[in-house]
Amino acid sequence: MPEQSINGTVFAYEDAGEGAPLLLLHGGLGTARLHWWREIPVFAAHYRVIAPDMRGYGRSSPPRTFPFDFYQQDAADMAALLDALSTAPAHVIGWSDGAVVALVMAVHYPHIVRSLTVISGEARLLPQERAVWPVLAGASTWSGGARERFIVAQGPLNWPGILDAMVAGYNRVLDERGGEIVSQRVHEIRCPTLILHGDADPTVPVQHAYELHTAIAGSRLHLYPGTGHLPQREHGEDLRARVLAFLAEH
Question: Can you list the domains of the chain with their CATH numbers?
Answer without folding.
Answer: 3-244 (3.40.50.1820)
